[in-house]
Structures are given as structure tokens and as C-alpha cells.
Amino acid sequence: MAKIKFSFSDLLNDPIKIMAVMYPYFLVILIGIGFVYIGNSGSLVQNKIAPKIDDSTNVVTDLPIEDAKIAAAVDLKSFTEINPTLVEKGKQLFQTACSSCHGADGKGDGTAGAALNPKPRNFHLVEGWKNGRKTTEIYATVQKGILATGMPGFDYLAPLDRIAIIQLIRSWMPASLGEPEPPIDTAEDVATLDKTYALSAGTKVPGTISVVSAEKLYQTNYSDRIGKINFTLAKLLNEKLTNPDNIGAKIFFKVTTNQQKALVTLFNSSSWQIGEKEFLAVIADNLSENGFSGKIFSLSNSEISNLFTLLKSVAV
């Protein structure tokens, strides 16, 4: 059998032969690259930059500072007649006061309402209205809020502003089954609401202050008192820890659930210093909120005397 002579010079003179020789190697390399790519495709397309998710619980909306005033009398026709100007005003007010829970379009999908149970009202649905869908009924809801669902009252808004929001809400309402339009208020409904809130005579709108401003005002006006309370509390704690003979200090910590609140209660009144009877009367008033517990009323007369004497000596 004759041997086939192989020569590189022949390959160089014939490019097709070069491709024929190299093709299997190229094919193996391409297949290898393909396997590597498929094996790492997950990490290749993975987004390694963490998405920015705004935490709606950190969004702070505060009230503006406004003086108390008498709101202008309300035209009672606004409870029964749609006013396009009011609807437009309602859109702006709704975005500020309501959209965080109820959503920009009133569908109950606001970011702040995501964690609420039950979910905020979807104004586009007929069912589930707790106080009714009439303008007067919604007005009462906006005025007082709904404690069971966590909805606050918006009595700080001027009556006409509340009506503007309500007119917008009613523009979203579908008709109930068999009704040509959402329920309309009767003259009696409007008259009853007017009698309750004196809308046609002009109503008192309380002033508002932001939380930040209120805290600064409190600290400015009561910083000395806060300092005295904290100093007194430190003295009582020191007496309890270092002076085992001071029975009054031990009793104070026994009959208080919040020592700072308890001292605030005493510093806000001087009548309790008249005697032990007056002392107990001040504590009995709003017991659940004043820092004291009901244990104080099970103390013996001598224990009450020890506690009273101690507190009177430090509350100066």
C-alpha cells in the first residue's frame, strides 16, 4: 500500500486543505466555549446592583403651622350638586391628604396602606362602605375617622376642603345595582349634618403645628422642668440602690410602671403636696396614663406615708 506523503508546503499552497485540517479544532473550541457560557449564564445576566426600594414607613408627612380660624360658611348646595371647580380642588387635596393610603386614583393601593388590615377603601367599589356613600355620610366619616380601621379624622381641614375631596371621591363611584347614579342626599340629610356641625354658619377650625415645631416648643418651654424630673429620678434610683433604709424609694419603683411619667404627673400639680389624701386623689386620676399602677392602693398607711414624705422632699 502506497504511503500518502504529507507536506506543509502543499497545505500552504492549498487554503482549502488548511481549513479542512483546522476545522475539527475550531469546532471543539466553539463547543467548549458554548458549555462554559451555558454553565455561567446565570451569573452573566444577574443584576448585581441592589434595587432601590423606598421605605414608605420612613416617609414623614407633617402638618403645616396654621392659626386657628373661623371657616367660611358652606353653601349647602355643594352636598347635592357637583361643582367642577371643587372636584379639581379635591384632586390636589386628595393627593396631599389621602393618596398615601388610598392611592393616587382612589383604588386603595397607596404605599402607606400596604401593611394595613383591613385595606384602605377602594372608592371605585360599591360594597363595603361602613358609613354609607352619600356626601353627608362620607363627610361624617372624614370628620371623625374610623377608629376600628385606623383611619384618622381630618377635622383640621376646612369644611369646604373636605367637601371638595368628597366630590372627587363621588366622581369615581360606580352606580349601585338598579341605581342610575350613586345615592343622593336628601334635604333632611343635609339639614341634620348642618345642625351637627354648623356648616352654614361657619365653623371653628383649630390651629395646627408640625410635630417637629411642637417638640422644639416643648423643649424650649419645659427644658428646666425636664432637667429637674430627670435629676429627681436619678436621686430616687440612687437612694434605692445605695440606701437600703430608704423604704420610700423602694416603694416608688414598686408602684410605678413608668417612673418618668409618674414624676411628670407630680410636677404638673402641686395640690398633691397638701396631704396624703390629696396625693392619692391625684394618682387615682387617669391612673392608666400617669405612670403609677394600681399597686399603690394596696399599700399600708405607713407605706403611703413613707412614699408621700419621700416624694414631697424631692419634688422641689
Tell me what the structure shows.
- Helix content is 51%, strand content 1%.
- It has 316 residues and is mainly alpha-helical.
- It has two domains: 69-205, Cytochrome Bc1 Complex, Chain D, domain 2 (Orthogonal Bundle), CATH 1.10.760; 211-314, no CATH class.
- Strands 1-2 form a two-stranded antiparallel sheet.
- 19% of the residues are buried.
Please summarize what this structure is.
Helices cover 51% and strands 1% of the residues. The chain has 13 helices and two strands, in the order αααβαααααβααααα.
Task: Offer a few descriptive terms.
single chain; mainly alpha; Cytochrome Bc1 Complex, Chain D, domain 2; 2 domains; two-stranded antiparallel sheet; 1% strand
N-to-C SSE string, H for helix and E for strand: HHHEHHHHHEHHHHH
Assign the CATH topology of the largest domain.
Cytochrome Bc1 Complex, Chain D, domain 2
- The CATH class of the largest domain is identified as Mainly Alpha
Q: Which consecutive residue ranges, at least 5 long each, have pLDDT under 50?
A: none
What is the topology, as strand order, of the major beta sheet? Answer: 1-2
Distance between the termini: 125 Å
Task: Give a topology summary.
Layout lengths: L7 H6 L1 H25 L1 H5 L23 E2 L13 H14 L1 H4 L32 H10 L14 H14 L14 H11 L6 E2 L5 H32 L4 H8 L4 H9 L8 H9 L16 H14 L2
Antiparallel strand pairs: 1-2
Helix pairs in contact: 4-7, 6-7, 9-10, 9-11, 10-13
